Amino acid sequence: MKTPLISILIPVRDDLNNLKACLESLSRETLESTEVLVCDDGSRDPLSSELLDRIIPGIRLFRISGSGPAGARNHLSQKARGEYLFFVDADTEFSGDTLRQARKIITEHPGLEAFIGSYDDSPGVQTIVSSYKNLSHHYVHHRAAGKVSTFWTGCGIVKRKKFLEFNGFNEHYLRPSIEDIELGMRMAFRGTEILLFPELQVKHNKAWTLAGWLKTDLLLRGVPWVRLMATRKQWLPQLNFTLSHRISAIISILILILPALAVFLPVFWIIWTSLVAGFILLNLGFFSFLSRKAGFWKSLPMIPLHLLYYLTASLALALGLLSAWIQGPLEE
């Protein structure tokens, strides 16, 4: 059986160091039946074809001007020759086994038209916020293995024919947002099966700050995601919207507001303490995972970070519903 050509598509803007690490890790994979395409989306210091070619000979570099990651990926998909499009971010690294796993999945599921993977459990940046953010992503994806109704450009593969059939990513999103989720929802709604394989992994090298994480989760992903689900009436009980996530979100809100009530009625401190204990128990599996991977002491400040995550998600829900009511659906 002939091995299908895989086109690896990487958009980048002003992130040369991470891109070099990504390509160097890719060069250590088996690149048979593979082509690599990079789109420089308006970097202040344009990428050099010669530099990239020294890392991976034959790499194809394209330049556009500030179309955003959705536009850059769509541009690359038009230039790609592969049967499969493999989307990754410039700030990821291949594991040394990533392409073998991708080919294995393609071989074992010949009718599968789209699938996604996961971040590994060893983030490239080991700060508390970066470790929390990337390990939580790993944990959620590993618990959600199987059929999903979303796509993911951090490590996602789709047949080029299917991708073009759906006109690719919605270029309404000019910044990194939910363009991959939106495409996945469109595909799943129209009957395309999308599977999540946790064994297909890349390393994430993004250095998260607290402010950057909260801005991304609230404004760039949370609010648009809720607005998308509300306007399309497609509420997805997967990944970050499972029952335990929703219960944790409610508890987090109560943990935030009960201390104000306890000023007038001290009995609320007992309720507050019980809620904190319940929050920890409900998320004990996740906290145990963080302790194993990051170490006990480093994982302790991740507990309030997790509480903050749910508070942010709750705010995103409220603002997203308000946005859906005021602004209506996004342009298709």
Tell me about this structure.
With 332 residues, this protein is α/β, with parallel strands linked by helices. It folds into two domains: 6-125 and 145-208, Spore Coat Polysaccharide Biosynthesis Protein SpsA, Chain A (Alpha-Beta Complex), CATH 3.90.550; 239-327, no CATH class. Helix content is 53%, strand content 16%. It has 13 helices and nine strands. Strands 1, 2, 3, 4, 5, 6, 7, 8 and 9 form a nine-stranded mixed beta sheet that branches. Helix 1 links the parallel strand 1 (6-12) and strand 2. Helix 8 (210-232) packs across helix 13 and helix 9 (243-262) packs across helix 13. The chain is globular. The two termini are 39 Å apart. The mean pLDDT is 93.
CATH T-level fold name of the largest domain: Spore Coat Polysaccharide Biosynthesis Protein SpsA, Chain A
Bin the strand percentage: 15-25%
Structure summary, number of beta strands: 9
State the CATH superfamily name of the largest domain: Spore Coat Polysaccharide Biosynthesis Protein SpsA, Chain A
Average pLDDT? 93
Which CATH-level-2 architecture of the largest domain? Alpha-Beta Complex
Number of contiguous helices: 13
Order of helices and strands: EHEHEHEEHEHEEHHEHHHHHH
Q: Fraction of residues in helices?
A: 40-55%
**Main CATH class of the largest domain:** Alpha Beta
Number of domains: 2
| Oligomeric state as shown | single chain
What structural class is derived from the secondary structure elements? alpha/beta
End-to-end Cα distance: 39 Å
The stretches of 5 or more residues where confidence is low (pLDDT under 50) are none
Outline type: globular
Q: Indicate the radius of gyration in whole angstroms.
A: 21 Å
Q: Sheet bearing the most strands, described? A: 9 strands, mixed
